[in-house]
Amino acid sequence: QTWLSTSTCAVCPHTEEQHQRLWKSYVAPPPSANSLKGNNFTAKVVEIVSGDVVVVADVNGGAERRVNLSSIRAPRLGNERRGQKAEAWAVEAKEFLRQRCIGCTVKVSMEYSRKV
After folding, report:
1. pLDDT in single tens digits along all 116 residues of the chain
2. Parallel, antiparallel or unpaired: strands 40-50 and 105-109
3. pTM above 0.85, yes or no
4. CB atoms within 10 A of CB 5
5. Cβ distance 65 to 58 under 8 Å?
6. Among 6, 17, 26, 83, which has the highest number of CB atoms less than 10 A from its own CB?
7. For residue 39, which of 105, 106, 110, 107 has the smallest C-alpha distance?
């Protein structure tokens, strides 16, 4: 025994059968020019925020971007205004990264981007 429902949708007057394969002809829009995902670019390191975050300036456009290093979990620096103390080795991690990277030209490969 087959059972076929002809009830209407709770949101619109269409039946459930009319909603099937509604998106079958959908074509996703191409990624925008401002999208960073998958983009590779050359930049210069201009600031070290913490042991795992750097600010880079694109060598072509000069736009600065804050970049988190992939697969790195550095100790947190804390916040004096909030009464948070820095974790052990946080200052040393930031200083190590500063000595190694500040002013260097680097190749940046964006794995993903998020809007804050």
Report:
1. 444 455 555 556 666 666 666 667 767 666 555 544 457 899 999 999 999 999 999 998 888 999 999 988 999 998 889 999 999 999 999 999 999 999 999 999 988 777 76
2. antiparallel
3. no
4. 8
5. yes
6. 17
7. 110
